[in-house]
Structures are given as structure tokens and as C-alpha cells.
Amino acid sequence: MSLRLDAPGRSTGVRRFGRAARWVHRTTAALMGVCVVTAAFLYVPQLAELVGRRELVVRVHEWAGLALPVPVLAGLASRAFRGDLGFLNRFGPHDRVWLRAALRRDKRPSSRPAGKFNAGQKIYAAWIAGATLVMLGTGLIMWFTHLTPLVWRTSATFVHDWLALTIGIVLAGHIGMALGDPEARRGMRTGSVSREWAEREHPLWRK
Fold this sequence. Notes:
The chain has helices at residues 19-43, 45-48, 54-67, 70-75, 79-88, 93-103, 119-143, 150-179, 182-190, 195-201; strands spanning 3-7, 10-15, 192-193. By secondary structure, the protein is mainly alpha-helical. The protein has a three-stranded antiparallel beta sheet.
């Protein structure tokens, strides 16, 4: 367990995220935000009317989308970040218990055992990673129109548009949950959380 000390012998926080993880999260969030906002200005008629340079918005959207995987790829240089990815990619029996409790809307911490990441966070991370890759692939097909047949471009546009809407809804839920948990936000902002929060929300986390 890594502790932050304010006075000799007194621990005030548990180290949850290193610099690399926080940088990856912030950079990815910024790029995703640019993608979502520019997509809204491109597809919502009321917003599209406010844009005087649509071609510029298109280019910003394309390059932000193309850059989305870059922070994660750069973060792989960090051993701590690779360790976090390992935790996110590992499901255990306690994760099934957590999911059953979530489906029953049982919010008691004792009914939702979790390691460093709970089952909901693991599912979200896997889903958003897969969705990002699909969006990148379909976006490239739409961008380089001369490389693929019309049926591919039509299908890519359909998948890209509807998946974008789904991502927007999921991101809104993710942000809403973050707003409801100040301690989790503190962990991502400063890297540390209180010992009490860690023991209550992630009792199986070997800190």
C-alpha cells in the first residue's frame, strides 16, 4: 500500500492512480469530448446552423477521432498503467457477485465485492475500447471513400452514426456516476483516495 503522509505516522490517502493513468484518462476524455461535440454540430440541424465553417469542424472531428487511441498506446510505456489494464481485463467470481447485486439494485457495499476496479468499470472499459476501435475503423472507411465499395461506405456510415449516439448516452451515464462519487473523482484528479473509501468500495483491492 502506498500512503501519502501529512504528518509523521499519520496516513491520509491511498495511492490509486499514477501519473500515466491520469494523463491517459484526461487526454482521452478531451479527445472524446471533441469528437462528441463536433459530431453534434455536424448532425444536429439546430447546431449545424451555428457553424460557419463546416469543413473545419469535419477536419477537427476526423483528426480527434484518429488520435483517440494514441494516449492509451503512449501509456503502455508505463508499468503501472499496464498493471491497471491487467486488472481491468481480469474477471473473477466476485465480479459476478457484483453484477448480480447491481441488477438487483442492491447498493450495500457488502453485497458488491470489488478489487481495484469493480465489474461495472471493467465492462465499461472493455465496451468503450471496442467502440472506439469500431468508430475508428468505420471512420476511416468514410474518410477514404475511394478505397472501398459503396456498400461498405453505406454500412460504415450507418454503424458509425448509431454507435456514436450510443457512445454519447454511455458517456453521459459515466459522467453522471462520476459526479455522484467525489472520492473517485479525487482519485483520478490527484492519484490518491481515502483509506476508508478504498476499504468500503474496493475491499478486495490489494493496495
